[in-house]
Amino acid sequence: MPVIKVDDIAHVRFAAPDLASMRAFLEDFGLNPFEQGGRLYARGSDGRPFVHVTEPGEARFLALGLRAETVEDLALLAAHEGVALEDMDEPGGGKVVRLVDPDGYGVEVVAGQVCEPAGRLPADLPTNTAAAKPRFRATVRLEPAPAHVRRIGHAVLKVRDFRRSEAWYKARFGFLTSDEVEAAEGVPLGAFMRCDRGDKPADHHTLFLAQLPGELGLLHAAFEVINLDDLMLGHQHLKAKKREAAWGVGRHIMGSQIFDYWKDPFGNELEHWTDGDLFTAADPPQKQPMSALLAVQWGSPHPMSTGRFPPPAGLVSFIMALQIRIRRLFARKPKGTPA
Ligand SMILES: [Fe+2]
User: Fold this and answer.
1) How far is the CA of 207 from the centre of ligand 1 (A)?
2) pTM for the model
3) 101 CA distance to ligand 1 centroid (A)?
4) DSSP secondary structure string for all residues of 239-287
C-alpha cells in the first residue's frame, strides 16, 4: 500500500532571471500570470490558486507540485518521511510537505489550498461530421487569441534509473502505470503513470518518468486547453508572437492527446493539449515499444525524425536498450526497493 494516493499534479516551479520575460511568455501561452511576494505565479481557469511558479534566480527547474486529497494525508506523508508539515506561504495557503526524489528533484505535496470558483467554459460548438450535422444555419467564427489554459495536467521528468524512481513515486503517492515504454523487450525506459482515483476517471498520465541519456531535468509540463479550436488559435498566436515552437501540432499514441509544444524564454518546454484519454484504477497497465513514444497518429513528426539524416527508429531503440542494460550491469540495487 502506498503512503498516500495523490489526486493530481498541482504545479511546476521554476527559477528564472527575468520574471517580466517569463510573464510575457505565459500570457502568450494562455496562462494568467500575477506577481506576489516577489514571485511570479500563473493560474488556469479551473479555480486553483496557481499552476506555474517562477522565482527569481538562475534559470532552472525547481520542483514538481502534487496534490494530496486532505491535510490528514499530508500529515501521514510527513510522519512517514520524517519531515515537517509546513504552512504554505503562497497564494491559496494550505499545507505542504517538501521532499526530494532519488534524482534530487524537489517534490512539493500540497493540500488544503483555498480555490476560487472555476471559470465558466464556453459551450462546445456542435461539430458537423460525415455521420451527423448538428450545426445548421449557424457559422463558425473564431477570434484570434491566446489559448485558454484550463489546468495543469502532467509533467515529464528525466531520471537516472527508471525502476528506482518508479518505486519511489509509487510507494509514496500510489501512482498506477498506464503505459510502460520499452526500448527492447524487458528493457523499460519509462512509464506514463496516472493517479489512483479508484473508479473516478483520471488522466492517462499525470507523471511520466523517462530514463533517457543526457542531463537530468524536466522534459515538459503540460496544460489542458479548451478544445481543438482553442489549441490551434493558441498555436497561431504563439507563432505570431515569434515564440519558439518545439513540436506539434499532432496526436500522440499513448494518451491520445492532440499536442502542441513550445519553449519558454529560458528553454523550458510547455505543452498545450486537448482530448486526452481517461482511465480508472481498474484499467490494467500496457507495454508499448519506444517507437510509439515518438510516433504520431497524425501531424508533425518528432523533431528527431525531421533532420536531413534522421536516425532509424530501430537504431535509436537499440542504442537506448544497450545503454540501459549497461547501466543495469553496473547499478547497485537500491536498498528496500523492488527490482
Ligand atoms: Fe505531454
Assistant:
1) 9
2) 0.93
3) 20
4) HHTT-EEEEEEEE-STT--EEEEEE-TTS-EEEEEES--EE-TTSPPEE
